[in-house]
Specification:
The chain is an alpha/beta fold and about 290 residues long. The chain has 10 helices and 11 strands. The strands form 2 sheets. Strands 1, 2, 4, 5, 6, 9, 10 and 11 form an 8-stranded mixed sheet that branches. Strand 9, helix 7 and strand 10 form a beta-alpha-beta unit. The structure holds zinc ion (ZN). Zinc ion (ZN) binds next to loops.
Amino acid sequence: MRNALAIAVAVSMSVAGASAWAQNAQAPAAAQAKCENPNALGVARVVQIDTTGGPGFGFEHFKAYDFLRDKEVVLTFDDGPWPGNTAAVLKALGEQCTKALFFPIGKHAGWHPEILKQVIAGGHTVGSHTWSHKDLSRMSTEDAITEIEKGFAGVSIGAGNQPIAPFFRFPALRHPPELVKYLGDRNVGIFSTDLDSFDFKMRKPEQVVASVMKKLEKHGKGIVLMHDFQQATAKGTADLLKELKDKGYKIVQVTGKTPIEPKKEYVDMVMKEIGGGLETARPMSSVIKTIEGN
Ligand SMILES: [Zn+2]
C-alpha cells in the first residue's frame, strides 16, 4: 500500500529542514507577478503533491491517481534547457500567465544554467530527467542510480544551488521496477504521461498543436508530454496555448510538497564534471578588464 497522496490547492510551500539546500528553496509560484493579459489562459488550479513513497502519475504507466478534472491539463516540457527553444516556450507561457512542469537534463542544466534560472524565475515547476538521458532500462541498477542522482544534482546546481521539485521522468518513459522502488524510497514522484505529443518527430509547429489538441479531444484532459528542446514545439507553444484557451481547457500547475535535496557525493561529482565553477565564478567584468585599447 502506498502512502496517501495529499493533493490540495496550495497557496504556499513550507520548507522544513536546516540545510543550505533547503534554505534556498524556490519561492512558491503563487507569489509571482500578476498577469497583465486580461484574456490569458492563466492557471486554474495549483496542486501540491506529497511525494512520500514515490507516487506515479500519467495513465500511460501509472493509474493510481487520477487527479485531473475534466478539461484540466498539465503541460510538461522535457530535455531542456536549450538555447532559443526554451526561451520561446517561456515567452509563450509568460504571455498567457500560465505555468508548466519542466524536466531538464542535468548535463544541459550544467551547460545552460542561465536558461534554467529563467525557467525558475518564471515560476514554473522544475523536476529532473536524469544526468545524460540514457535509457535506464539498459544499464546496471548502480549506474542507473548514478544517472538519476547526478540528474537531481545537476539540475539543482544549475538552478542556482537550490533544491528542485521532487519529480522525475524516465528517459523514453522506460521505468525498470527496481528504479521505481529506488525513487519511492527517495520520496520522488514519477511522471509518465497521459498524452504523448510525439513532437520530436515533427518539423512544423502546427503539427505539434494538432497532435496535442486531437489527443486532448479524445481524452478530455491530461498530462501532456512535449519538449522545450524541440524547435517545432518552441515555435508552436503560443498557438497551442491560444487553442487551449479557445477550447475551454484549464491549466493545472503541479508543485511538490517537499523539495528533493541532492546527495553531496553526486553534487561533488557533478561539480567536478562541469568545471566546478558555476556558482563560484565571479561576473566576467570583475575578472577581466580591458586595460589598453578599446
Ligand atoms: Zn527526454
